[in-house]
Request: fold
Amino acid sequence: MVSLKQTVIADVVLAVSVVSLCYDLQFICSAGFIGDSLNRNMFVSLFCTLKSVNKNVKKWRPAGADRGFTFLDYNLTIAYHRTNLLVRYGRWSASSNGGTLESLGYTDGYRVDVDVPDGTWAEALKFHDILIFNTGHWWWAPSKFDPVKSPMLFFQNGLPVIPPVHPEAGLDMALKHMITFVEERMRRSSILFFRTQSPRHFEGGDWYQGGSCQRSQPLSPLEVEQFFSVSNNGTNVEARLVNQHLEKVLRGSRFQLLDITAMSEFRADAHPCRAGGKKHDDCMHWCLPGITDTWNDLFIAHLNSIKDRI
Reply:
């Protein structure tokens, strides 16, 4: 059992590590979390840790950010830029004038421009020294992108990708374009991370099917494989599927993989479930304090290893 004193000491160590790294790396020091609500989960964890050590903080949001804060004593800014797919997307409906997609029978869906970054973070590259990206959950979201009623329709160079491709192929295309976009624009001294997929722990169906996560203990290694093995093709299989795409596309890039998946797969007991009056069990996001604090410990360890090499 971790004591309150041990927790406070750990928070101080993490906060001091972040600030000292900024000085050692000669950064103004601004870290941007770019991604879906699971990256917000990680951002909030880091904010709470830093604020527990130093409360001299003000709200300040870089362009496009959903939220952001500056710790005035250290000139340290952290911000969260919300983006579900990393790339621009929006509703698409068939034109009365017809077109390629219309000729194939499509009447409604979502247009996803795989080579155009979401406007919420496109300008973030000019400001942040450290970037932590994620994407994945929305690419496997049949409740949002119904493959029949509202499919994802991919566009490149302003034109539909023909023949239309499945979301897995669209994810690869989007990742390749966004990696190129970032690497061509970020300073060489900047530090780039891509966080692996955060696992879900739904049992008895997905969230919209009444799935739940009422466990009070972590999973055993055998249970982890039953939950997440790609060969089982279960409700929560997306975590390892997304990681396969990330590892393939990021190979040879400037991005470092922040691998939080394996450690998190065991923690079926660490979700908020119906806390806060939710109508459905939340088996995707994480309680705080919790596993996302450990993600940030790993993040800081990576930064320390970079500092040791310079």
Summary: The first strand starts at residue 30 and ends at 35.
